[in-house]
Amino acid sequence: MHSRPSHNRLSSFQSRISALLLAMLATMAAIYVAGRLWQDAEERVYLIQEIDKRSSQDHSAISVDDTLKIIACREQQKKLSTLEMELAAARKEGFVPTSLSKSEKADSKKKLLAVVGIFTTFGRKKNRDAIRKAWMPTGAALEKLAYEKGVILRFAIGRSPNRGDSLDKQIDSESRQTKDFVVLDGQVEASEERPKKMKSFFIHAVENWDAEYYVKVNDDVFVNIDVLGATLTAYLNKPRAYIGCMKSGEVFSEPTHKWYEPDWWKFGDAKSYPRHASGEMYAISRALAQFISINRSILRTYAHDDVSSGSWFIGLDVKHINERKFCCSSWFPGAICTAV
Predict the structure, then answer these.
(1) Hey, where are the domains in the chain?
(2) Which of 84-88, 258-262, 331-335 has maximum average pLDDT?
(3) For tag attachment on the chain, is the N or C end more exposed, with fewer CB atoms within 10 Å?
């Protein structure tokens, strides 16, 4: 009669013991996990402290200037690597800049002898028309010149300081009709900007056409294309050629002078420019044009475009060729050019 109640009490006692054991196990597990987390946290704090100590030691050994130089160098390396990969991918795909016309795309795929930039400006349409009538072919004949003789001729001009005004529209309209312009969109067209315009042209030309030479000529000069081609061909064995009517000249330090040079003091007490080609017309080989393109951001320009280009080559292993045929102001039989 009393056996069932005692059995119930035993079952209840066993249940309580099981619950107690489970609670103890859970508590021990929680303590263990908390201990591990606390140990990990201590280890992380220790590691952070050690890193801070070592970082402070490293920083004390390297100056701020050196640190900035290292950071800048690494950033440049990253940019260079990215650009090299993009360039390789573009070359693999046969990349041709979208700004080129169909004829220019065809010309850019083959090796040319020369790309000639005829430097012009706003309000000089009469000069351009005179050149088109005298020595610069138009229409299909212009493309034929590129195909048969490997010579590209283009008028080079920048953009108006008031971008998109009537001056820009006139050039755009003329360019659509004649298709003989290189419009330097990122370059302001102004007399004081001529040195930068010269740099922009060489950069544009070497990046868009693969030629042996890149030539700059003013729009008041008449050129004999056949003699130019023959003369340039004679110097093909000079990989870094700078060809022109070489000269020097006085550096003017008076601000009121027409040819004032703001950086006159850099040219020494004699106040004389280093030897350079006359700005009326000169040619540089592909290697020099590439040099300008690569170093565009650090090449200093002076008051005059011919002095600027000459200053860039003075410290390089460049062959300065004083070619009398490039002396446009003193025409003689067999000359390449004549100033008008």
Answers:
(1) 113-339
(2) 331-335
(3) N
